[in-house]
Design brief:
Number of strands of chain A: 4
Mean pLDDT of chain A: 92
Largest sheet of chain A: 2 strands, antiparallel
Structural class of chain B: mainly alpha
Mean pLDDT of chain B: 86
Shape of chain A: globular
Strand content of chain B: under 5%
Radius of gyration of chain A: 21 Å
Radius of gyration of chain B: 30 Å
Strand content of chain A: under 5%
Strand order of the largest sheet of chain A: 1-2
Low-confidence stretches of chain A: none
Number of strands of chain B: 4
Number of domains of chain A: 1
Oligomer: heterodimer
Chain lengths: 483, 642
C-alpha cells in the first residue's frame, strides 16, 4: 500500500476542485430549491472557469499520480480547457431555455459539472481503470441530462436509447479491456506500452480482438460509424441546450481519450488499429455527408454533421503522426467554436413562444435578421470547409497529415464527402437568403446568445488572420502525446 | 484630325444616343445623331474634293493597337481616292437616311435606340473603308455585321425579324470564316497585315505555292479566294445570298442604308481595295466574274415574280451587286466603283420611296394590294420613276452610265468569262427593266386594290422624308453623268492614283471606250424593251401574267420560291445542324454528360441519402444490432487478414 501525500494530490487539483464544488453546489441547490437554479448555474460556470484557470496554472509537463493512473500533460491541458469552455458555454446557453420551457431545475447545471468532471478524468486517464471510471461518470450524467425534459416523450426516449446503447458500448469497452489485460497482464498505459515494445504480443489475435472492442466502445462515444446510430435520435429528442452540450464538450473529451488510449499504450500496434480508424473515419465522413442531405430538422442535421466532423478528426489519428494529432486538436478546437455558435443560433429560433428547429424556419432570415443570418452563414461556410473560414483550416491540417501518411484513399473519400456535405450547409444559406420569408423569430435575441454567436462568427471569420497561437498550442499538446 | 472627325463623330453620337437616350429624349437623340452624321457628310465631301482632285493620299496613325512578337498593328486611317468615294457614299446616304428615319420612325417607341444603331453602323462602315490593314478592315466588317444584325432584328417582338437577324448573322459567318482564314493566311505568308506591306510583296509571291489543307496551292489565288468568300457573304452573292431578302424584315431606312447603298457593297469595296492582290490571281478573278454574273441573273429572275415591294428591290440589289462583281472580275475596278457609286443613290432612293409608299399605306408591302396610287402619292410616284429608270439604265440617268460601262468593260475584256458576263448582263438588263416597270405599274397604276380604310389614310410622306428623297433623286439623275469623266473617263488615272491597281497588259476600261456601237447600245435597247414589255403585261393586258403563270406553273413556282435555295439549305444544312444540335443537346449533354455527370451523381447521392436515412429506424435493437455487426465485421476483418 502506498500512502497519498499532498504532493500526490496537487496534479489533480482541478478535478478535486470540481468534485468538491459540485457537492457544494448540490447542497446549495437542495436548500434553495428550483428558485436557486439561476444562482447555481452562474456558480457552476464560475466553478468551471476556476477549474480552467487551475488547469492552465497547474503542471504542464508530464506528471503522473495516483499510482500511475492519472496523468497531467500539455495534451491534457489543451483538451481540458476545450472541454471546460464547451461546458460553461453550454450552461450559459441553457439559462434562457430552461426558464422559458419551465424546466429550470437546479440539477441541470450540476449534472453538467459532474459530466465535465468525468471528462476531465477521461482526458487524464493513464490506466484502463481510470479511463472507465471517468467515462462512466461522464456517461451517467449525460444519460440523465439527455432525458432532462421529463414531460417530453421524445426526450425520455432519447435518454433511454442513449442509456441502453451506452451500456452496450460500455460492455464492449470492458470486454476489450479484459481481453487486453488477459493478453498483456496490465491495465496501465505505460506498462502496456512497455509490454508491447518488449514482446510480440502486439501481433496476437487476442490483443487485436481486445483492441477492436476497445475502439468500438470509444467510437460509440465520439459517435463514429457504425456506432453512431444513437446520435440523430438523441440530438433531436433531447432539449436543445442539451444537444448543444452533447455536441461539444463530450465529443472533445471522448476524442481526447480516443487519442490517448490508442497512442500512449498501443503505438506499437499502430499498423493494426490504423486500419480500423481508417475504416470508421471513411464511413463516418460518408454517412455524415449523405444522411444529412435529406434532413429538415436542424438538430438532426447537426447530429449527422457532427458524425461527419468526427470522421474528419479521426483522419488525423489515422495518420498516426504528431502532425496528425495536432490536426485533430486544431480540428476539435474549431469544431467547438463553430458548433457552439450554430447552436446559439438554433436556440434563438423562437416563434410566438415556441421553439422551432426546422431548416425552413430559417427562410428569409437574411431579410428579417441580417446580422444573425450573416453570422450563421459564416458558420455554415466554415462547417462546409470553405476558405477562408476557420473550418477550412481544420480540414486542411488533417488532410495534410493524411496525405503525408500516404492515406490517399481516405483523403480522397474525405474530399468527396466534404463536397456532398457542402450541399446541406449551403442549402441553409440558400434558404436564409433566397427563400420567401417565413415568420420571423422573436426579437430581441437574448444577449448571451447574441454574444456567443457574434464571437464564434467573428472567430471563424478572422481565424485566418492570426492562426498561429492555436496552431502552436496544438503542436505542443500533440508533442506531449507523441513526440 | 479632320479625317478622324468623320469617322468618330458617328461613334460619339451612337454612344450618346444609345446610353443617354433616356435623358436627352427622342428628339435629342435624333438631333445628335443626325447632326453628327451630317457634319461627317459635309467633311467627307470636302475630303473627296481635296484628295480626289489633286491631293495626295493621307495616312493618319491613331494609336498602336496590337504588338506581339513580329505582329504589329495600328489603328490608322488611310484616306485615298477609293476611301473618299466610299466616305461620300456612306456619309451622304447615311445622313439622308438619318433624316428620313426621323419621319419614318415617328410612331415607333424606340427612336433613340434606332438612331444609335444607325450611327453605330455608320461608324463601323467608316472604319471599314478607312482601314489601312486587314484586321481593322475585319473590325469594321464585323462591326457593320453587328449593326446589321441589330437593325434587322430591331422589331424584336416579331419572330420573323429575329429569325431574319439570326439568318443574316449566321450566313455572314460562313463568309467571314473564309475572310478570317484569308487574313490569317496573309499574315502567315507576308508576316504583316498592313495593306501597303502586303501589296508591295504580292508580286514576289505570285506563282509560288504553299501547303493548304494538305494540298500544294498557289498562294495568291488561295488567299484571294478565301478573302472573296468573305466578300460573297457580305455582298450576298450566289449561295450566300439567302439572308439579304430576309433582311427586309428590318425597318425600311435600314434596308436603304445597309442592305442597298453601303454595307452590302463592302464586298465590292474589299475586292477593289485588294486589287493589287486580285490582279495576281487570274483564277480568282474568273471566279469573281462568274459568281457575279450568275448572281445578277439569278436575282433578277427571282425579282420578276416577287410581290413584296421591298423584296423586289432587295433582289434587284443582289442583282446589281452581281454587276459590280463581274466588273471587278474583269479588272474594271473603276467601273465597279462607279456603279457602286451611282447604285447607292438610285437604290437608296428606291428603298426610301418604297418606304414612303409603305408609310403612306399603313405598313402594307404587298404590291397586289396596291395599285392606282399615283394620284395619292404624286411626289413619291415621280421619285420612284426616277429611281426605276435609273436602275433600268435609261439614258441619261445615272444608272445608264455605270451599267453600260460595266457591260462594255466585260465585253472589252475579251475573255470567255467576259463575254459570258456581257451576254448575261444584257439579259439581266432586260429583266431589270421589266421588274422595275412591273413594280411601278403594279403599285401606282391600274385599279386600286387597296382596303378602303387604308386608302382613306393614305398620305404623302412628311417633308423630313421627302427632302432626303429629293436629294437622292438628284444623285440618281446626275451622279452618273457628273462622275463619268473623272471616275472612268479620261481623268480616271489622275483620279484614282495608286488606290486601284490594274495590270497594264489588260485594262478593259480603255478598250470599253472603243467598242462597236451595237455592243454599246444593246443594253439600252434591252432596257427599253423590258419596260415596254412590263407596260404591255401590267397595263395593257393585265390578264396575261396570271395566265402565263398558270401555263408555266413549274417555272413560275421555281422563281417565286427563289430557286428553292432556302428549302435546299434547310434540307442540307439547317435540318442536319438542328438535328445534330438537338441530338448532342438531348442525348450527348442531357443524357450522357448530365445523366452520368451532375444529374447522375445527384440522383445517386439522393439514393444513398435515402438509404442512410432508412437505416435510421428508431428501434434500439436495430441500433444495437448495427453496433454488434460493426464489431463483428472488424474482428472478422482482422482474423481473416491475419
Amino acid at each position: 500500500m502506498t500512502t497519498l501525500s499532498m504532493s500526490d494530490l496537487m496534479p489533480a487539483l482541478p478535478e478535486l476542485w470540481v468534485a468538491a464544488a459540485s457537492l457544494v453546489l448540490l447542497l446549495i441547490g437542495t436548500f434553495r430549491g428550483d428558485r436557486g437554479t439561476g444562482l447555481v448555474s452562474w456558480l457552476s460556470i464560475a466553478v468551471l472557469i476556476i477549474a480552467a484557470v487551475l488547469v492552465v496554472s497547474g503542471p504542464q509537463d508530464k506528471t503522473v499520480t495516483f499510482g500511475g493512473m492519472f496523468i497531467v500533460d500539455a495534451f491534457g491541458v489543451f483538451a481540458k480547457v476545450l472541454a471546460l469552455l464547451g461546458s460553461s458555454l453550454a450552461i450559459i446557453m441553457s439559462l434562457g431555455y430552461l426558464r422559458n420551457e419551465g424546466m429550470a431545475r437546479f440539477e441541470f447545471p450540476i449534472l453538467i459539472v459532474l459530466a465535465t468532471l468525468g471528462m476531465m478524468m477521461m482526458i487524464s486517464a493513464n490506466d484502463m481503470m481510470s479511463l472507465y471510471l471517468g467515462l462512466e461518470l461522464q456517461s451517467l450524467a449525460l444519460y440523465v441530462v439527455a432525458a432532462f425534459k421529463r414531460d417530453s416523450v421524445r426526450a425520455t426516449e432519447a435518454g433511454l436509447k442513449y442509456f441502453v446503447l451506452g451500456a452496450l458500448s460500455s460492455g464492449m469497452l470492458l470486454y476489450g479491456i479484459s481481453l487486453i489485460y488477459g493478453f498483456t497482464g496490465s491495465t496501465n498505459f505505460v506498462q502496456l506500452a512497455e509490454t508491447l515494445r518488449s514482446t510480440d504480443v502486439a501481433h496476437s489475435v487476442g490483443l487485436i480482438v481486445g483492441l477492436v472492442f476497445l475502439v468500438s466502445g470509444l467510437a460509440f462515444k465520439v459517435s463514429a460509424v457504425p456506432f453512431h446510430m444513437w446520435t440523430p435520435d438523441v440530438y433531436e429528442g433531447a432539449a436543445t441546450p442539451v444537444t448543444a452540450f452533447l455536441a461539444a464538450a463530450p465529443k472533445i473529451a471522448a476524442m481526447a481519450l480516443f487519442l490517448r488510449t490508442l497512442v500512449a499504450p498501443f503505438m506499437e500496434a499502430f499498423a493494426q488499429w490504423q486500419q480500423i480508424i481508417v475504416v470508421i473515419a471513411i464511413a463516418s465522413m460518408a454517412l455524415g455527408a449523405f444522411a444529412a442531405l435529406r434532413q429538415d430538422n436542424l438538430k438532426r442535421l447537426m447530429a449527422y454533421s457532427s458524425i461527419g466532423h468526427m470522421g474528419y478528426a479521426l483522419m488525423g489519428l489515422a495518420a498516426g503522426t504528431s502532425q496528425g494529432l495536432q490536426g485533430v486538436l486544431v480540428y476539435l478546437a474549431l469544431y467547438l467554436v463553430m458548433n457552439v455558435g450554430t447552436f446559439a443560433a438554433i436556440l434563438t429560433m423562437r416563434v410566438r413562444g415556441t421553439m422551432v428547429e426546422g431548416v425552413n424556419d430559417l427562410a428569409g432570415l437574411g431579410k428579417s435578421n441580417p446580422m444573425m443570418a450573416f453570422a450563421l452563414a459564416i458558420l455554415m461556410f466554415s462547417l462546409a470547409g470553405i476558405p477562408p473560414m476557420a473550418g477550412f483550416f481544420g480540414k486542411f491540417y488533417v488532410f495534410l497529415a493524411a496525405v503525408d501518411a500516404k492515406l490517399y484513399v481516405m483523403a480522397v473519400a474525405g474530399v468527396l464527402s466534404s463536397v456532398v456535405a457542402a450541399y446541406y450547409y449551403l442549402r441553409i444559406i440558400k434558404v436564409m437568403y433566397f427563400d420567401d420569408p417565413a415568420e420571423s423569430f422573436e426579437q430581441p435575441m437574448p444577449g448571451e446568445m447574441r454574444a456567443i454567436l457574434a464571437v464564434s462568427g467573428a472567430f471563424t471569420l478572422l481565424f485566418v488572420l492570426y492562426p498561429a497561437p492555436l496552431l502552436a498550442w496544438a503542436r505542443i499538446a500533440a508533442g506531449a502525446l507523441l513526440p | 484630325m479632320l479625317y478622324a472627325l468623320i469617322v468618330f463623330l458617328p461613334a460619339v453620337a451612337a454612344l450618346i444616343a444609345g446610353f443617354f437616350g433616356r435623358w436627352i429624349g427622342d428628339r435629342g437623340a435624333q438631333m445628335v445623331t443626325c447632326g453628327a452624321v451630317t457634319i461627317a457628310a459635309v467633311l467627307s465631301i470636302l475630303t473627296f474634293f481635296e484628295i480626289g482632285f489633286g491631293g495626295a493620299p493621307q495616312h493618319v496613325e491613331l494609336l498602336r493597337w496590337m504588338q506581339s512578337g513580329s505582329f504589329e498593328m495600328s489603328w490608322a486611317l488611310q484616306i485615298d481616292t477609293l476611301t473618299c468615294v466610299m466616305l461620300v457614299v456612306v456619309t451622304v446616304v447615311s445622313a439622308l437616311v438619318h433624316w428620313y428615319s426621323v419621319g419614318y420612325m415617328d410612331h415607333d417607341h424606340h427612336k433613340s435606340r434606332f438612331m444609335a444603331y444607325l450611327s453605330l453602323f455608320t461608324f463601323a462602315m467608316l472604319m471599314l473603308v478607312t482601314a489601312d490593314n486587314f484586321v481593322q478592315l475585319f473590325f469594321g466588317w464585323e462591326g457593320v455585321g453587328l449593326a446589321s444584325y441589330l437593325l434587322i432584328g430591331f422589331w424584336y417582338d416579331r419572330p420573323s425579324a429575329n429569325a431574319a437577324a439570326i439568318k443574316a448573322f449566321v450566313v455572314n459567318r460562313v463568309g467571314d470564316f473564309g475572310f478570317a482564314l484569308g487574313i490569317m493566311g496573309v499574315f502567315l505568308v507576308f508576316n504583316s497585315v498592313d495593306f501597303a506591306t502586303v501589296f508591295a510583296a504580292t508580286a514576289i509571291k505570285a506563282g509560288q505555292t504553299f501547303s493548304f489543307l494538305g494540298m500544294q496551292l498557289d498562294i495568291v489565288t488561295t488567299l484571294t479566294m478565301l478573302l472573296f468568300l468573305g466578300a460573297m457573304g457580305k455582298s450576298a452573292q450566289l449561295f450566300l445570298h439567302t439572308w439579304l431578302p430576309d433582311a427586309m424584315e428590318g425597318p425600311t431606312p435600314v434596308s436603304a442604308l445597309i442592305h442597298a447603298a453601303t454595307m452590302v457593297t463592302a464586298g465590292v469595296f474589299m475586292v477593289v481595295r485588294l486589287s493589287p492582290m486580285f490582279e495576281y490571281a487570274p483564277t480568282t478573278l474568273m471566279v469573281v466574274t462568274i459568281v457575279g454574273a450568275a448572281t445578277a441573273f439569278f436575282a433578277a429572275s427571282v425579282g420578276l415574280v416577287q410581290n413584296d415591294i421591298k423584296r423586289v428591290i432587295a433582289y434587284s440589289t443582289c442583282s446589281q451587286l452581281g454587276y459590280m462583281f463581274f466588273a471587278a472580275g474583269v479588272s474594271a475596278y473603276s467601273a465597279a466603283m462607279f456603279h457602286l457609286f451611282t447604285h447607292a443613290f438610285f437604290k437608296a432612293l428606291l428603298f426610301l420611296g418604297a418606304g414612303s409608299v409603305i408609310h403612306g399605306m399603313s405598313g402594307e408591302q404587298d404590291m397586289r394590294r396596291m395599285g392606282g396610287l399615283y394620284t395619292l402619292l404624286p411626289l413619291t410616284y415621280a421619285l420612284m420613276w426616277i429611281g426605276s429608270l435609273s436602275l433600268a439604265g435609261i439614258i441619261p440617268l445615272s444608272g445608264y452610265w455605270s451599267k453600260d460601262l460595266v457591260l462594255e468593260a466585260a465585253f472589252a475584256a475579251g475573255s470567255g468569262v467576259g463575254y459570258f458576263a456581257y451576254w448575261t448582263g444584257v439579259t439581266v438588263a432586260l429583266m431589270t427593266a421589266f421588274y422595275s416597270g412591273r413594280l411601278l405599274f403594279m403599285t401606282f397604276h391600274g385599279p386600286a386594290r387597296v382596303d378602303k380604310a387604308v386608302m382613306s389614310h393614305a398620305h404623302e410622306a412628311p417633308k423630313v422624308m421627302n427632302v432626303p428623297n429629293l436629294i437622292l433623286a438628284l444623285g440618281a439623275i446626275v451622279a452618273g453623268f457628273w462622275a463619268y469623266d473623272f471616275m472612268v473617263g479620261e481623268g480616271r488615272a489622275a483620279f484614282w492614283g495608286n488606290a486601284i491597281f490594274v495590270m497594264p497588259s489588260h485594262d478593259p476600261i480603255e478598250h470599253a471606250h472603243h467598242l462597236p456601237w451595237p455592243i454599246v447600245w444593246l443594253p439600252m435597247l434591252a432596257a427599253v424593251l423590258g419596260l415596254v414589255l412590263s407596260w404591255f403585261l401590267y397595263v395593257r393586258r393585265p390578264d396575261l401574267p396570271a395566265r402565263w403563270a398558270t401555263v408555266n406553273a413549274p417555272l413560275y413556282k421555281f422563281l417565286l420560291n427563289k430557286w428553292y435555295f432556302d428549302e435546299l439549305y434547310d434540307l442540307i444544312f439547317v435540318g442536319p445542324a438542328k438535328w445534330l444540335g438537338r441530338t448532342l443537346w438531348k442525348g450527348g449533354d442531357g443524357k450522357i454528360i448530365d445523366g452520368f455527370g451532375p444529374d447522375g451523381f445527384a440522383a445517386m447521392t439522393i439514393q444513398l441519402a435515402r438509404r442512410a436515412v432508412a437505416a435510421q429506424s428508431g428501434y434500439v435493437y436495430h441500433y444495437a444490432f448495427a453496433m454488434l455487426i460493426g464489431v463483428a465485421a472488424l474482428v472478422t476483418f482482422f482474423l481473416v487478414m491475419g
